[in-house]
Amino acid sequence: MMGEMIIPRELLFLLFVLCYYIAVVSGAFLIKSFWTKRSMSYRVIYFLLMIAAYSLIRFFTDDGEHVSFVLCMYGIPALVGAFLTVRLIAKEYGDTRVGPESVKECVDRLPTGICCYFEGGQVKLVNELMSRLCIELTGERLSDGEWFDRSLKELSIAEEDDTVLVRMGDGKYYSFRKQTADLDGRPLKEIIATDVTREYRLTAELKEKEEQVAALNVRLKELSEESLKTAIEKEVLAAKVRVHDDLGRVILLARRCLNLKTDDNFLSLEKTAEEVRKQAILMLSESPDEWRRDYGYVFRTAKQLGMKLKVQGRIPQGERSRRLAVSALNCAILNSARHAGADQINVKCEKVRDEATGTEFYEMSISDNVNFQVEKVEEKGGLKSLRNELEAEGGSLIIRVGQGVALYARMPAD
């Protein structure tokens, strides 16, 4: 019969120690994960399991064998674990215990400055930020609350109710608000300091923009008044042009009829007088310019004055350009009939583009067929009014003399 296999006691002991460490670590993890509701240190759990295991081992090795080895393997770690556990418990207790020092530490970490004092200036509480602000502003430590309150009012750049605004040396702005509380039946005064640098700068920017807007409003009002004045001047100018053209037209027709001295011409004069009366009614109507914006008015005027109107090119059809073209044609027809005795007006018109600005213009040349040399034309009356009207709309007028008179009018297209 084969002898029984004997496993050395030391080997069994080493296997037991290995299993023991695995069990301790696994047990600590399981207890922390599934059993504890509060956060518990692994070292605390390790210590408790170590004590239990140490007791069991001492029970099984009570015969005294291997006691020194067991003490080395388990006693020393147990003592170290006990020391660390006691230290951890003390630290956790100190962290969770609320006392005066904890309150002071919490107050010092606040982003606002706090100073509490009783009547007479006795300081009850002041945090680090308020102490630093006091030193920066006054150069002294905060030991008297009422003195500090008076100093803030002297250094303030703005004050409203119980709040003062102070500018610090580094360019920051702090708001110091004063209020009163009650502590055990005694009035306790509080000063709260808040960094309002961002708010102050935003307010300053807003105020600056409001001033800019106010200045723009004043400028817009001035421009509106100038625009109204310009509009009135344009209306007056247009009225002058109408009066000048119509009176000149009537006078020329009357002179022509009187010079011929025939019955037909007197009848023509009567018709002309009737037409002038109708035109006067139109001039007093709500839209005095409507009857003058049609080229038919120009051709009728030329026909009544015994003149032919020869046109080359496409004449302007836009509202503004047509009005300017009619004014230029009327001025040329009346001046040619009155001063040169011409019987034909030649008109050339083309649309051009300004390459520099990309703006389109109409260029109109108006000339008569007189047979004598003209040395000079005095620019007044109708010619002056025509130039003012064209330039007011962004156009121009050039007058050339020689074999007769030629007008070169440039007007913006629309």
User: Could you give the order of strands across the largest sheet?
Assistant: 2-1-6-5-4-3
- Basic shape: elongated
Low-confidence stretches: 35-39, 63-68, 281-291
Overall SS class: alpha+beta
Under CATH, the topology of the largest domain can be stated as Heat Shock Protein 90
> How many strand units?
11
How is this structure best summarized?
The chain is an alpha+beta fold and 414 residues long. It contains 11 helices and 11 strands.
Write up this protein.
This protein is an alpha+beta fold and 414 residues long. It has 3 domains: 9-96, no CATH class; 101-195, Beta-Lactamase, CATH 3.30.450.20; 218-412, Heat Shock Protein 90. Helix content is 57%, strand content 19%. It is built from 11 helices and 11 strands. It has helices at residues 9-35, 42-60, 67-96, 100-108, 128-138, 145-155, 197-260, 263-283, 295-304, 319-340, 382-392, and strands spanning 113-118, 123-126, 158-160, 163-167, 173-183, 186-195, 308-312, 344-353, 360-368, 396-402, 404-412. It starts with 8 loop residues before the first helix and ends with a strand.
